[in-house]
Amino acid sequence: MKLWGGRFKKETSSLLEKFNASINFDKRMYKEDIEGSIAHSKMLAKQDIISHEEQKTIEKGLLQVKEEIESGNFVFSIKDEDIHMAIEGRLIALVGEAGKKLHTARSRNDQVLVDTRLYTKRRAEEIGSGLLELMDALIEVSEKNIGVIMPGYTHLQRAQPILFSHHVMAYFQMFKRDLERLESAVERIDVLPLGAGALAGTTYPIDREYVRELLGFAKVSENSLDTVSDRDFIIEMNFVLAMIAMHMSRFSEEIIMWSTKEFSFVQLDDGYSTGSSIMPQKKNPDIPELVRGKCGRVYGNLVSIMTVMKGLPLAYNKDTQEDKEGFFDSVDNMGMSLEIFKEMLLTMSVNEENMKKGIYGGFINATDVADYLAKKGIPFREAHHITGSMVAYCEEKNTSLEELSLEEFKQFSDAFESDVLTLITVEACIEGRDSYGGTSTNQVKRQISEGKKLLEKY
Ligand code: ARG
């Protein structure tokens, strides 16, 4: 007999039962469901809607159900449709009459949201910790490698020399913004939906503020129609996860590239790489590849729920049951990705020699030659042109700017003096870029210490 079976004369088709059920995936919110129900029952008793005796019976019964679930003795069945009815049904079987009063002044429409919001809030906390640990690892890698020089790229063409740590700290900034986005999303998750009823509120004298306090929500929702139909909070979490995934995917792409023989900038630890079943020489970067791949999947989950929501009239519609699997999938995968990505970074070795080799042969100090001329009074656009013709000259002679003699320099401009040769070394190029946020050691160390200060707050 279904909990809602009163008006039905015929059995539900087994096909519908299978199609309709969410219990196979929403059972992971059993703890939140029980917590929500206990708080609801306490409020009902406080408001004299049920007796204190009945409340105690309900609470004891719910804790027993929890025990059964955790010890593996609970029978999950699609006949119960979802976790809410499975738990309520079992409660009634265990405690009888009092159990039948639990659903007073409540609907599954506000109940499912109390579960989902509590659950999402918890998972958001986990993602926050994962982000913080990854940021901590980025600082560790940056500090460990502070002297390492590498080519900085634009269009994936060698552009200007930078510190490797500057590159790593760029990701720190991305994950810092992700953390801010996460914290902001939590503010909108942290709202009590219970009390909205099916859609219009309830005729019982409930106390929502009391339930809010019991469950630790920051606010009580304002409009019952909005409350039962809103899935913005879960969309926002999907978005935050998608953004984290995108940042990790970009870094992954670089690590994959850097691990090739062609680059050989880094080497992944044996413990965090895989081999080939046929080619004995292979060492494959499966972790960053999978992280890059998961990004596509997480985007899919975001687009999927956005699309589910786009045509829904107020208030509750069953369509919104589709909000969970995608989110669960994204949060599970991103939780794992954050953790393994961090381990991979901490164990990765950096090939300082090869990174530095990447500096040479690409005229990576050409900007500095142009800047040299500009600082001697030649308008920058003209200095750019002169340097361009010097690059062409070097290419023809198969040499580099720093290998030219002073006489050769002077062929291009009288403004060149002997100090040019010391001002266009790689080290001078890097340390000279001491503008706020630049790549000089000074600026990178500042970023690292600001980063540490931020992490200390958590
Ligand atoms: N399993 C449902 C969901 O996830 C619970 C709410 C059902 N409400 C209803 N009126 N059928 O959305």
UniProtKB/TrEMBL annotation:
InterPro entries: Arg_succ_lyase_C, Argininosuccinate_lyase, Fumarase/histidase_N, Fumarate_lyase_CS, Fumarate_lyase_fam, Fumarate_lyase_N, L-Aspartase-like
Ranges where the Fumarate lyase N-terminal domain occurs: 6-300
Tree of life domain: Bacteria
Subcellular compartments: Cytoplasm
Pathway membership: Amino-acid biosynthesis; L-arginine biosynthesis; L-arginine from L-ornithine and carbamoyl phosphate: step 3/3
GO BP annotations, alphabetical order: L-arginine biosynthetic process via ornithine
Entry's EC annotation: 4.3.2.1
Major place of residence: cytoplasm
Reaction(s) this enzyme catalyzes, per UniProt: 2-(N(omega)-L-arginino)succinate = fumarate + L-arginine
SUPFAM superfamilies: L-aspartase-like
One GO term describing the cellular component: cytosol
Alphabetic keyword roster: Amino-acid biosynthesis, Arginine biosynthesis, Cytoplasm, Lyase
Domain Argininosuccinate lyase C-terminal, first and last residues per copy: 363-431
GO molecular function, one term: argininosuccinate lyase activity
NCBIfam families linked: argH
PANTHER family: ARGININOSUCCINATE LYASE
Family to which this protein belongs: Belongs to the lyase 1 family. Argininosuccinate lyase subfamily.
Name assigned to this protein: Argininosuccinate lyase
Native source species: Ilyobacter polytropus (strain ATCC 51220 / DSM 2926 / LMG 16218 / CuHBu1)
Encoding gene per record: argH
